[in-house]
Amino acid sequence: MAKPSPKKGAAVKKAVASQPRMAANGYRLPDPLPVGEILIDNTKKSWVLGESIGVGGFGEIYTARPASSDSDDYDYVVKVDHNNGPLFNEMHFYYRVAKSDLIKDWVQKKGLKFLGMPKFIASGLHDKQSNSAGSKGRGSKKVQSTLKYRFLVIPRFGTDLQKMLDVHEKFSLKTAYSIAIKIIDILEFIHSFGYIHSDIKASNLLLSLQEESKKKGRNVGVFSEVYLVDFGLVERYIFKDDGIHKKFEEDARRANNGTAEFTSRDAHIGCFSRRSDIEVLCYNILSWLSGGRLPWMFNLKDSNYVKQCKNYYMERTTELLNYCFPPSSSSPPPVAVLTKKVESNTNARVVDRTKPSPSIPLGISDFIKYTIKLKFEEEPDYAHLKSILEKAIVKSGEKSDGKFSFTQTKTSPSPVKSPTARVPGAVGAKRSSAPSLSPSPVLRSRRRI
Asked: What class of enzyme is it (predicted)?
C-alpha cells in the first residue's frame, strides 16, 4: 500500500484545523484564545487567560486572573463569545442585576446568610489579529484579519451538581430540598428585577470552590453553598419601560426554549413568567430525588411529545409521583399509558392513578400542587415554598440548617432500561435512544432581550 504524501497529510491537518468549531446545538463557537492572552475590560483592567475549562452552547470558558496580581491563582473565569453572539444578553443581565452592592443589599434586606448569585466582575470587547489563507493558487499570501470577541468575567466556582449526580445517581431528601431552598432565594432575587432564569438544571448549579478546596477536591463531607450560573436564556417577564407583566400569549419563535426535560409548560408554547421558574425547579427536584425517573425522559427529541406528557401529568399529580417513586425502588418504571384505548390493548403494567405510593418523599406533593395553582402573572409565595421544604426536612428526622452532603446510592432505579411513556394521540410513540442522567441540550437558541 502506498504511503500518503507528507505534503498531502499536512494539507489535510491544516484543512481540519481551519474548520469552524461547532457546539452540540449547532452554534458556531469563537476561535480559541491562547493561554496567557491579555484581555482589557471596560474599566481598563487587564486579565490573563488560563486554560479553557469548558465549551458551552454559546461560547468558551477560561480560567483567569488579574494581570496586576502577584498570585498565580486563577480565581476567576472568563466567558468568551463572538462580538455579536448571545453573550450580549447574559453580560447585560449581570451588569443590571449582579453588582456586588445589589446582592449585598438584598442579603441584608432578607436576612439571609448566603445568596448563590454570582457577582458581576467585569466585561469588555477584545480584538485579536489572525492570519488566514488568501486566494488559492501558487504564491498566495496570508491575509491578516481581526477576530472580535465579547467577554464576561465572574468568580470561579467548583464542581457542578450534574457531576455529583453522575456519581451518586440521586440526592437525599435533605440535600435536594436544601439546594432547592437556596435556589428559591436566588429566584426571588432575580425575579425582583423583572427577569426569570429559564434554565435551572444540575449542570448550571455549582459548588463553592473554597468549600471544595478545604475538602481537597474529594466532594465528601458537608457543603453549605451552591451557585446558579448560566444566565444566557434569561427572559424579561415584565416590559422594560412600564414594568407591566407580559400577557399569556403563545409565541412560536420562543417555544421550547430551555432544556427539554425541565422546560416549563408555559415555555413550551413561548410564554414566560415567574411560575415558569418554579415549575422548572419542580422537575429538577423530582429528578434529583428519583434518579432521573421522569415520564418524558425517553423521547426528549420530540418537543411536542414532552409538552403533552407534562400537560397530562401535571394535571394528575398522584400518577406523576407514583411514576417517579414506585412502591419498590428496584422495580423499573411502568409504561405510562394515558389512554383507555391503549390500556385495554397492552399487557404492560400501568401507573396507579389513585393510591399514592408509600415511596413518595415528604413535601414534594404539596410543592407541586402549589406550583400548579399559580396563575400566570402571580408572584410566587417564596417563603411558603421554602417552608414546605423546610418542614419536610424536619419531619424526615433531619435538621433544616442549610447544609447538604452527597452519599453513594446503590438502589436508585435507572431510567435507561425503562420503556417509553405514551401520551394521548401517540400510542405508537417512537422510542428515542436510551437517555442518560445528563441533561439534554438546549432546544432552541436565544435572541437578544
From this structure: transferase
Is 79 annotated for ligand binding?
yes
Q: Which of 41, 185, 199, 266 is catalytic?
A: 199
- Known catalytic residue: 72? no
Alpha helices by DSSP H, 62-206: 87-97, 100-110, 161-168, 173-191
Q: Which CATH class is domain 17-155?
A: alpha beta
Q: Which CATH number fits domain 161-405: 3.40.50.300, 3.40.50.720, 1.10.510.10, 1.10.10.200?
A: 1.10.510.10
Identify the helix (H) or strand (E) that includes residue 250: none
| Dist CA 177 CA 90 (whole Å) | 28
Which pTM value belongs to this model? 0.83
**pLDDT per residue over 364-388, tens digit each?**
999 999 999 999 999 999 999 999 9
What would the pLDDT profile of 63-115 be if each residue is shown by its tens digit? 999 999 988 899 999 999 988 888 999 999 999 999 999 999 999 999 999 99
Please classify residue 92 by burial: count the beta carbons closer than 10 Å to its beta carbon, then call 0-12 exposed, 13-18 middle and 19+ buried.
middle
